[in-house]
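Put briefly, the fold is written as integer tokens. One such record reads:
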Amino acid sequence: MLSIFKTIPTHMDYKGQKLAEQIFQGIILISAVIGFVYGLIIEQFGWTVYIVLGGFAVSCVLTLPPWPMYRQNPLSWQPLIPESSGEPSQKPQESLKKKKHK
């Protein structure tokens, strides 16, 4: 049963993140304007809040899951460089002598 969850993709590329952010902000902005105008017309602030919350819920459904439209530009990673087994790898900072402050 848990193997089903491992097949669900959980990543989003950078262009997909930008698109999701733009969609999220656009839906929130549009729902806020519609909610404000509608609430102003009927003079009920509660309807403004309901419309904005509805826009928030719709934007969450459209942008939080990693839909395929957000995964169309995958990153090409550099190939792995094998380490030589003869020498232990040290970081450049570790090879420098540490200076003692007096």
Notes: DSSP finds four helices and no strands in the chain. The chain has a mean pLDDT of 85. Helices lie at 3-6, 14-42, 45-63, 92-95.
